[in-house]
Write a sequence for this structure.
């Protein structure tokens, strides 16, 4: 058994997550993994669990938050999910 690095639970179904940088983390749930590893939105501070939006190296949970970025690119981000392209 391995101990979760977030909650300290000693669980027989714990799992490891290896990051691109080579770090190895042990968790007992996806909730703990997201709490430790998910990036935080630069605008609203929510944990980004889905795809999110990246503008010039800064991460946002959605296009709405990305539009608050000071860069011209951030202001140009538009939501496209569910909208017709024409």
């Amino acid at each position: 058994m391995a101990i979760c690095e977030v909650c300290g639970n000693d669980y027989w179904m714990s799992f490891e997550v290896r990051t691109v940088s080579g770090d190895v983390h042990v968790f007992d749930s996806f909730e703990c993994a997201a709490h430790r590893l998910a990036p935080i939105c630069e605008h609203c501070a929510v944990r980004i669990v889905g795809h999110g939006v990246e503008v010039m190296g800064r991460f946002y949970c959605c296009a709405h938050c990305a539009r608050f970025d000071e860069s011209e690119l951030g202001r140009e981000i538009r939501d496209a999910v569910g909208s017709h392209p024409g």
User: Anything to note?
Assistant: The beta strands are 2-3, 10-11, 15-18, 24-27, 53-55, 58-60. Helices lie at 30-37, 63-66, 72-76.
